[in-house]
Design goal:
Helix content: 25-40%
Largest sheet: 8 strands, antiparallel
Radius of gyration: 19 Å
Number of helices: 8
Strand content: 25-35%
Number of strands: 17
Order of helices and strands: EEEEEHEEEHEEEEEHHEEEHEHHH
Structural class: alpha+beta
Amino acid sequence: MENALVSTQYTFKNQKGFYRGKVRDVYNINDNVLVMVACDRISAFDVVLKRAIPFKGQVLNQIAAHFLDMASAIVPTWKVASPDENVTIGAFCQPYKVEMVIRGYLSGHAWREYKAGKRIICGVTMPDGLRENDRFPEPILTPTIKASEGHDEDISREEIIKQGLVSEEEYVQLEDYTRKLYQMGTDAAAKQNLILVDTKYEFGNKDGQIMLIDEIHTPDSSRYFYKDTYEDIQAKDQQQRQLSKEFVRQWLIENGFQGLDGQVQPEMSDDFVNMVTQRYIELYEHITGNPFIKGNYAEMEQRIERNVNAYLAGQ
């Protein structure tokens, strides 16, 4: 087995705070910039799993950097630098409490709700007669709010505005950015023989300006199908070939775990962990069109610290 970067614990100059997310370690530098270290932790059903996935952090960080650069033509982004394979440094923003989820196809959570008989999700009506992974007539927005603990919760546009989570004017802008970013991702995926099935975007506000934050179009936040085989597989009513984290969720479901109280995480074998690593690398190479160059785990924590310090010293 390869090594894995499970967590970090640095003290950078002018550091004011530290936060450990599900998969990232985030350092607040003087309320000015955030240093976001992508570790190899993996989460599913809003639970961090016991085993880390080698190279997952590097894959996520480099895919996100690739698309954040592309997205800057549509919306201001928080990213200012990527001084290390596992690090993005960006503007310190006040995050909106809403995650903008957009779905072009009936998959994942939406399919599980649909299969259970629901036809309205986040205030949006889904047509009758759809099968798993069918394309929606138009992409639908299914926002969520971050719960203080546990699973994110579906919420409608009307409820977001009613609760004052986002003003109506801001929400209209978030919707517009979301649809344009999804179209950008869809076009980029198509060039690589992929379909961007669904994804989510997070936004923040800095000095009155809406900014795209966090990661975008990675296998943790997005689902991809292979474009050239999609129609044939749907016609045969078979499971789509996909590049996403959904196969990990399915493996957990098959082994009796969906993050619910009382459920015990199944143990991931070395072979399964290696397979997950290869799936992440495969997505990186497919979606970017570039070969993946594995970072060196020898003295990785020291390398990250050195590269971040060098960047901060130059500011």
